């Protein structure tokens, strides 16, 4: 019998319902997402793109509570590598998301670096590699964001390594961690994105365990990934090809990842995020329900 992993709290996110944008005709309505995520057996959710779910705290509190749901985190995209000139615009957006996240009783804000490709056209808009100066901007800007978010809203930021961003591979993730203050900046380890970029999630947890503050659970299809990488396919089109797949069909194996996370001895959220944009609106619910059953078989 699989040992209970009692330090890990499982949830899901709008991403697993094909939601990438606040408003898009190809996405399921937010009411359907909330209904179905509860039906699939999850009790925790993330807010997803700001504006997808209602942004009035009283209304959103009512909507999630009557479905037996709670919010684990909000999410923001930032371009802090561009230096102090972007701070004002960054804080304008982050502040709105953080306020709603705090109002929903959550304690985490997931911070994703901006893409160096356009997320809709896949056009390359910035060099994939940062300069030394830009790495400095990224590290200091993230620390500043962490301090202000904590002081203003009481939230902990967790930075999400992501394909087609400047924090992606093992080399870049370790450089970022080594450049930032552990007292301020921790990671949201996304098992799928890290595998997509060649990283080993178990190794990262064992090496930088004190920096793991949050988990996103997903897997990649190794055959599709090999084709994607071999042909330089951008992340968006790769998702449309099905590069992120339903567990346990892909990599990494999630049982060792969850066991390593449990061994850290701290409470962690593990939020399922199976990128599926765009998708048939009837596809997410059965996948989400099967994934929840699979995770129960892993002990969570």
From TrEMBL:
Pfam families xref list: AP_endonuc_2 (PF01261)
This protein's UniProt keywords: Isomerase
Molecular function GO terms recorded: isomerase activity
Domain Xylose isomerase-like TIM barrel: 34-298
Statement: the UniProt record of this protein carries the keyword Isomerase: yes
Keyword Isomerase tagged: yes
Entries under Gene3D superfamilies matching the protein: Divalent-metal-dependent TIM barrel enzymes
InterPro entries, per database record: IolE/XylAMocC-like, Xyl_isomerase-like_sf, Xyl_isomerase-like_TIM-brl
Protein name: Sugar phosphate isomerase/epimerase
Record organism: Kitasatospora camelliae
Lineage: Bacteria, Bacillati, Actinomycetota, Actinomycetes, Kitasatosporales
